[in-house]
Design goal:
Number of domains of chain A: 2
Radius of gyration of chain A: 19 Å
Strand content of chain A: 25-35%
Oligomer: homodimer
Shape of chain A: globular
Number of strands of chain A: 17
CATH topology of the largest domain in chain A: D-amino Acid Aminotransferase, Chain A, domain 2
Number of helices of chain A: 8
CATH architecture of the largest domain in chain A: Alpha-Beta Barrel
Chain lengths: 268, 268
């Protein structure tokens, strides 16, 4: 782990990342010593920092630090946390260049191979996401909703959960973005009120555009989702998991999802 | 500062308090070496930990640590942070007794004395609080909304801001609870959807009960608030500030607020 460029595992207990979750992060896959989709990942990190007026370190600096950590572990998961740094007491933010950066790596998780081929059964989370347009889309450190939702999945023993917002619109998985296919059109939930807009979501939309497959961002209701031809989840760690089952939704073939999955696995 | 009972300023960069804001806190006043309203403060801390299934250290342990820090600074502000501790990667919570506790103290801030006597002008925040009934009331570490709202107040140069929720109900200050008085009844906003239920709010409600002054928890709209006879804010650090001005609301006498203020200052 590197904290502000130095080897170490400790941060100040007065860091605003801890006090208020005042920061952003990204989790990404490293293959052959290089972070997958690095430019997109950095673009999102930089945009998220900008939205909170947190100073974002240069791409070259972060890339160099990730690569130095991955020197002996060329295929792994890297995590970048950028916080507003150590600040004075009180909520009011300091605007400046004293952000804290933390780079860590961990082993690539080994998932059940059936999750990739047959797909997963999805828990419908009881917790509904609150709407906050100012923070929607940002991968910030205020993630208690995801913690509680992941706790629900853990309790029922399912690998992922489906999150809806308070109005009943489908938003995402607890740690993944969602797509559905219906009559030859791909849909992904509107994230203007809540949820995290991940890099894989953007990549799948780019794939669809390149394929000439219509892809629409849309407010999706549960009953609409259950009528889909295919449903799948994407994130930067596991790639793509087709959804085999959500309560009354059962599906065992995912021709389009499998095509995207193969592409996600191949491309960088 | 004490981290898990040991002098130090550092916590693990893998603490879930940093990764996800997975923890709770309290800020309290220490007078003559003893934390004001300690039993109420601990009761809230313990309830908040319980709501997130985080292990809460014993009251005696925390009190002892606060008192040891305040040995040379008998009048100060203490802050307690309890996080879920260092956890495995991923949102899913670990339920156990490995929480992290951080106790720190700082000097009591010196506010403009006019804030206490003449009252303050309140900024009406543009940011609206998102509703999340599962987390409402809890003083957890997901405080980005407060950070952004405090940033607004800082920009306009006002000491506090008024927060409304997305439906337009008045909720609180950015770091304080709100009361209004109208026709001999005290009102404080319903916090079942968002906001933090502070100890001073509870104390003021207890004061009203003891005085025979009716006090109601209520969904309050802005136009209702602006028609109030008195408005004031309370928190554990500054005590009570009457509100002199909110946009079109102007008031210079606060007989009831002043009575409560005197009582808050006297009691422990």
């Amino acid at each position: 782990m590197l904290v502000n460029g130095l080897p170490g595992e400790a941060i100040s207990a007065e860091d605003r990342g801890l006090s208020y979750g005042d920061g952003v992060f990204r989790t990404l896959r490293v293959q052959q010593g290089y972070p997958v989709s690095w430019l997109l990942q950095y673009a999102k990190l930089s945009r998220d920092c900008g939205a909170l007026k947190i100073f974002c370190p240069a791409a070259e600096l972060l890339l160099g630090e990730i690569q130095s950590l991955c020197f002996q572990q060329q295929d792994c998961i890297a995590k970048i946390i950028i916080t507003r740094g150590v600040g004075r007491r009180g909520y009011a933010p300091t605007i400046g260049e004293n952000s804290t950066r933390i780079i860590s790596i961990s082993a690539t998780p080994q998932y059940d191979t059936n999750f990739f081929s047959s797909g997963i059964a999805l828990h419908v989370c009881q917790l509904r996401l609150g709407n906050q347009p100012v923070l929607a889309g940002i991968k910030h450190l205020n993630r208690l909703e995801n913690v509680l939702a992941a706790g629900e999945c853990q309790e029922v023993g399912l690998p992922e959960g489906l999150l809806q917002d308070e109005r009943g619109f489908v938003i995402s998985g607890t740690r993944s973005n969602l797509f559905s296919l219906r009559n030859g059109t791909l849909y992904t939930p509107d994230l203007s009120q809540c949820g995290v807009a991940g890099v894989q979501r953007e990549r799948v939309m780019a794939w669809a555009a390149a394929q000439g497959l219509p892809c629409k961002i849309k407010q999706i209701r549960m009953e609409e989702l259950l009528g889909a031809d295919e449903i799948f989840l994407v994130n930067s760690v596991f790639g793509l998991w087709p959804v085999r089952e959500i309560s009354s939704y059962h599906r065992t073939t995912h021709p389009v999802a499998w095509k995207i999955q193969a592409w996600l696995n191949d491309e960088k």
